[in-house]
Amino acid sequence: MTRVWKFVVAIVLVCALALAGMAIRTQTSAGKNEVKNPDQFRAVWVSTVYRLDYPSKATTDPAVLKADADKILQTCADMGMTAVILQVRPSADALYPSSYYPWSADLTGRQGQAPADGFDPLAYWVEKAHEMGLELHAWINPFRVTKGGQSEYDSLTADHPAKVHPDWVVEYDGKYYFDPGLPEVREYIIQSAEELARNYDIDGIHMDDYFYPGANFDDADTYAQYGSGFSDIGDWRRDNVNQLVKEMGERLHAIDPDLSYGISPSGVWADKSSQSQGSNTTGGFESYYASYADSRKWVQEEWIDYICPQVYWYIGHKSMDYETIVKWWADTVRGTDVSLYIGMADYQAGNTDPSSPWYGVEAIRQQLELNETIAQVDGEVHFRYQFLAQNGELQKLYKEFYAPQPEAALNTADHMAYVQGSNGQFHPDSSLTRGEAVTMLTRLAVDRNGKPLYSYEEGTGGFSDVSLGDWYSSYVHFARKYGIVQGYEDGTFRPTQPVRRAELVKMVCGFFTVTSGSHAFPDVPASYWAAREIAFAAAQGWISGGTDGTFQPGRNVTRAEAVKILNRAMDRQAGERDIAAPFTDVRVDHWAYHEILEASVTHDYEKHSQGETWL
User: Do 539 and 531 touch, CB atoms closer than 8 A?
Assistant: First the structure.
């Protein structure tokens, strides 16, 4: 026998759009609207150029190099990060034994000097990251040779590719770069990336935004040799970068199809005033022109697995508004298989001037909350480690924001009343709204130990159409926090919109491990967005078809239908009871009378082979 808690939960009605730990695609008459994927990528850039983040000092001592790596990885794990993006090639050098580049002076203090005892820093980082449950992405700078002018260039080792192939090198503004227009340069860079993919169990390869350094790059001779098909040198330069991006992806995936290949360009592709398809920004730094990076094309062509634009401005910036730029990127990746991670300006946080938009960490918090409401944003990457490590407020923010929430389940043990009418009526044949639905789901959500999860907390869930003071706002806020519901791609929750039958089924399935099933509904083809969940629900006996055998997945679900489906999902067995329904509009001859009774009256019960007996 199971005892129930003796209280009646103040609920309005039934079910919701999306549930515990899954993303749901919702059909509308206008097509599909995507809801947000809760499996987020949360990473930190770890810079090795100038030893900004790693190592703490130039050394060949493996003990120091290991201890520094351990500290960084542990701090990242403690903040709830899921990945580290380690700069393994800060310039044309390496933090690992390479056949293409010498050991980095940023690591040991002298270019070409290896760590002692054959120690391989990258192998160690990969091993330790995986032990902590973190992904390790290898960050490479494709074209930069030196940063410190002629003296640094002169000090390069004799076997450095820039010294072996001086015809590959172009000086620009006191720095030296490989010429992207040379096919042999692009091939060299691709081969050296292949070396990483073959030799290390890395989870990804990540290129930063250093392509062409500027418009005055001295590549006229290269253009004359290779640019005959282009009337504009800018288009030719962009094509050179495009060739590198495309072929590198193809060849890396030929080695490891599961390798995640991504790029972090500057945040603005182009202003709308320059390109009609550009963002509504006026900052003037457009990567399409400044570095000849046609990042929009990389996404459209799906040459990369993820794009990570560096959106280093705050919400409300007059010319480079964070929200405007992020939503532009969301529009860009929509309909592609390219994931969108937002590069965030943690280095800006912690300004001590109260009038600064970067005062404290509130600007970062607002950005995180905004990201949560945009379906296409699959995570964030934070620049960079030391700015997080030295800012206790940021660490606290991420520990709270990225903290894993208890996995939600339906309360199948306690048969409390989970529906309540209005003015004594239930309106069994009316549709549900999302606000009503999320309220009930929140009240029915328990952790895996059966403990209720809901606790009142003011908030809106970050949804633009949910306001403080709305009767459902606290429930929506809580449900969003725990991944019980997700919003639409435009940042709305649509609390007054009805829930359809397929949505309800997919939502309920979110509380369960969905396995294979079968159905005979002629209007649910195998390609239907919720076909798998509908088949599972049918196999479990939660749903059945109409008299014509159809399921009608796009029809609004009624309150009575929702109660029946949810009763079955919670294994609450309706039967004839010697008690009247608490609603004046639910007659005993209504087809769902006993289902509604089961859902609206708190009771003790005992299960047996014939069903369920109320006590």
Answer: no
Q: Please give the single-letter amino acid code of residue 295.
A: S
Whether 311 contacts 366, CB under 8 Å: no
Q: Whole-angstrom Cα distance, residue 335 to residue 338?
A: 9
Phi, psi for residue 481 in degrees, rounded to 5:
-60, -40
In order of 258, 475, 560, the CA distances from 445 in angstroms are 35, 11, 20
**Max intra-chain CA distance, the chain:** 94
Tens digits of residue pLDDT in 435-452 = 888 888 888 889 878 898
Report whether 15 contacts 510 (CB < 8 A): no
> Which one-letter amino acid corresponds to residue 276?
S
- The label of the residue with tokens 């709308």 reads 272
CA distance 549 to 522: 7
**Residue 489 to residue 429: CA distance in whole angstroms:** 30
Secondary element (H or E) of residue 7: none
pLDDT at 37 over 50: no
Residue positions counted in the chain: 615
In 319-415, which ranges are E strands?
339-344, 377-382, 409-410
CA distance 105 to 238: 31
Predicted TM-score of the model (pTM):
0.73
